[in-house]
Amino acid sequence: IEISNTIISCANKYFSLNLTSMHLYNIDGRYYLNRKTDNKKYHLVFLDAYTGFDIPEHLYTYESFKGIRNKMNDSGVLICNLVDDKNSANIPRIIATLKKVFTTVNGYIIHYDKSEEKFENIILYATPQELQPDIQQKIYDIYSEENKIITSLVKAEIEPITNIFLNQPQELITDNFNQLNWYRLKIIRSLMKNRNKVLYHLS
To answer: How far, rounded to the nearest angstrom, does the alpha carbon of residue 145 sit from its chain's CA centroid?
Structure first.
């Protein structure tokens, strides 16, 4: 599912997107979730949506996650790829909202070796299944092993979010009460401030 025709064109041109082996919906994600005519169930849903620096906040609400759950098999998995300030309140709120819909919620935070950089890559996964701790540990081990080359090249470390975010009580994100924009605005301002410093040093 992709709302932008430009992204689809770029995927075709630069990443050899093969539309003969998939069905691509050129619509907004929430519109697709609200469709009553499509009864397909999916094993894997990957949520990696951005609008520039920002994430589409309507895709991270309780109502949106309920819609995603309704499109999944009972053994399905939702994976969310996020970039955020490691001290932001966004990630705990997203996790708290996911936990209202899914039985198991976990993930990893990737720490990069940048002393002044606060932004981290966070991978979350959620499933209706109850995954025992040993299974979750195996998932972490596999993820760490498969990303060993990349993390060594960029001097990054992978840490389970259980050490940081998982048990922090937070308000839910809903269609009627969505705080993501406000917190993301603070992050964008910080990004632009750092960007201006780089431009100044280059000039």
So the answer is: 21
The structure tokens listed for 3 are 């709302």
**CA pseudo-torsion sign 186, 54, 84, 13:** negative
pLDDT of 116 reads: 52
Adjacency order of strands within the sheet including 156-160:
42-47, 72-85, 119-127, 104-112, 156-160
Within 10 Å of residue 165's Cβ, how many Cβ atoms?
A: 21
Q: What's the pLDDT at 91?
A: 85
Encoding tokens for residue 45? 């849903």
Strands 42-47 and 72-85, bridge-based pairing:
parallel
- How far apart are the C-alpha atoms of 124 and 121, rounded to whole Å? 10
Q: Average pLDDT across each block of 10 residues of the chain; the chain has 203 residues. List them in order.
A: 84 80 83 79 89 81 95 92 79 91 89 61 90 80 70 68 65 87 61 52 36
The DSSP 8-state label assigned to residue 80 in this structure reads E
Name the maximum alpha-carbon separation found in the chain: 56
Phi, psi values for residue 102, rounded to 5°: -115, 150
Going by C-beta distance under 8 Å and a sequence separation of 6 or more, which residues neighbour residue 123?
79, 80, 81, 82, 107, 108, 109, 110, 143
pLDDT at res. 127: 94
Q: Is residue 115 classed as helix, strand or coil in its secondary structure?
A: coil
